[in-house]
């Protein structure tokens, strides 16, 4: 049994201490944005934020996050009021199948929290641990750039004319 704080709400969970956080999120708490991809921390589909750091929840035992603040995609915004990053992904139509997108968004969110003035190179480097076969890579990059510009207060968030 462990007490974890997810999206600002403390939860007491029944899972054994070595249970991957991903299983607790999905099976006990019914927070299904983080996905099971590889189960080895190699694809990024399970990424969540723990105290500002993007981590792979599929290889993180729940005991390691006890007493720490965990944020999932569900904690960024709502359908009615999406976060700046979520709105940017919507505006750029950055999701195709959507399986890897929650993980990418969480890693991008952690990056933007650390550095809202992020460069395109830093965005690309940050997303390297993520695998996506859909081919919306340029839209994903534009969405993160759009969110960064929005957070910086710039009027023209992207400055591109077309979509890929």
UniProtKB/TrEMBL annotation:
Gene3D superfamilies: 3.10.20.30, [2Fe-2S]-binding domain. This is (2Fe-2S)-binding protein. Residues 1-76 form the 2Fe-2S ferredoxin-type domain. CDD domains: fer2. The keyword Transport does not apply. It comes from the Bacteria. Keywords: 2Fe-2S, Iron, Iron-sulfur, Metal-binding, Oxidoreductase.
